[in-house]
Amino acid sequence: MNDFGFEAVRSVDVVVIGAGQAGLSAAFHLRRTGLEPDRDFVVLDHSPEAGGAWQFRWPSLTYGKVHGMHALPGMELTGADPARPSSEVIGAYFDTYERTFGLRVHRPVDVTAVREGEGGRLRVETSEGVWATRALINATGTWDRPFWPRYPGQETFRGRQLHTSGYPGPEAFAGQRVLVVGGGASGTQHLMEIAEVAAGTTWVTRSEPVWREGPFGEAEGRAAVALVEDRVRRGLPPRSVVSVTGLPLNDAIRAARARGVLDRLPMFDRITPTGVAWDDGRAVDVDVILWATGFRAAIDHLTPLRLREPGGGIRVEGTRAVRDERVHLVGYGPSASTIGANRAGRAAVSGVRRLLAREPVAAPAG
Predict the structure, then answer these.
(1) Could you read off the pLDDT of 31-58 as tens digits, one per residue?
(2) Residue 334 has pLDDT above 80, yes or no
(3) Residue 235 confidence (pLDDT)
(4) What CA–CA distances, in Å, run from 323 to 245, 306, 327, 347?
């Protein structure tokens, strides 16, 4: 509210929510097309520092272990120490990128809701006030919505439970019996690290892991992305690109398999005070359950716009939400990979520029 009791609303043509890979790509392309930060568009990011979700990665995930980190448009990432934590390398890279292109990211800013505003604009409600915008590029990713499955007896477990989002590195599990749940890249990385220091490890997954032999070329990548795109077009919640590509076999994976570290058990049926149990009578006692069970899209702030389909997802064509052409989603579904996020940022800006080229929308009074 201002001194006269009226709500102050700042107006821009475009609001970008999120300053990870996809958000920064969109901001770069907005600026390159002639829009000015803080005048024509604004980038809002809830994280305390530059780096997107990378700043929260565990210390043992060094830059050399990162798979497929693609450079942001207009600036390569060169000379990075592979032994340095990826959170530091990529955080510093994103920070330099923001300053080099003058993107003026606002942080930390929490976006609480996006709803219909006045005069055909969207109303973006945030911890730093209200923005009225003609178009929205949502680049909020998934890190803020870790997925915790629920199993009978979960609340009775006397040990520790944590999710990948809170993984502190392998040292925290020294001498303990650890159960890792999840068959993705994070689950296998956690398991191989923890096995070096733990008293024992157990690995459970819902389905048999699919190991990918040989090179993963452009044709295979297109086919994987197409599967994810199909779900998004049908309004279903997106699966990650990684979930349909399988796990790449490398020397470390082969060695871990040979040692029995990656011997997988099917999902348990219930959790007990001391571990987990199956209906066939098997049971395992553990000290820690680590849920490497992935994330869901962080899009609850868009709920007032009613963009979701009956299947639970937001139907998207390219990057545009089918139910509202003013809204573009980047880093969502097929654009959740780093290279996909870059391309989606450019595509979203192209769509936004076409929208802005129409008759201007009057700014709300405020």
Answers:
(1) 999 999 999 999 999 999 999 998 998 8
(2) no
(3) 72
(4) 30, 8, 9, 18
Buried-exposed string 132-153: b where 16+ CB fall within 10 A, e elsewhere: bbbbbbbbbbbbbebeeeeeee
Backbone angle region of 266, left / alpha / beta, with phi > 0 → left and psi within -120 to 50 → alpha: beta
d(CA 178, CA 194): 8
Find, among 128, 137, 114, the residue nearest to 27 by Cα: 137
Neighbours of 355 (CB within 10 A): 16
For residue 301, CA distances in Å to 135, 180, 257, 289 come to 15, 31, 42, 30
> How is residue 194 written in tokens?
């923890």
Residue 161 pairs with which residues in a beta bridge?
A: 289
Of 237 and 113, more confident: 113
What is the rounded CA–CA span in Å between residue 306 and residue 145?
19
At residue 32, φ and ψ (nearest 5 deg) are -65, -25
Kindly report the length of the chain: 366
For 331, list phi and psi in degrees, rounded to 5: 70, 25
Contact residues for 173 (Cβ-Cβ < 8 A; gap 6+):
194, 197, 198, 288
Residue 66 burial by Cβ neighbours in a 10 Å radius (0-12, 13-18, 19+): middle
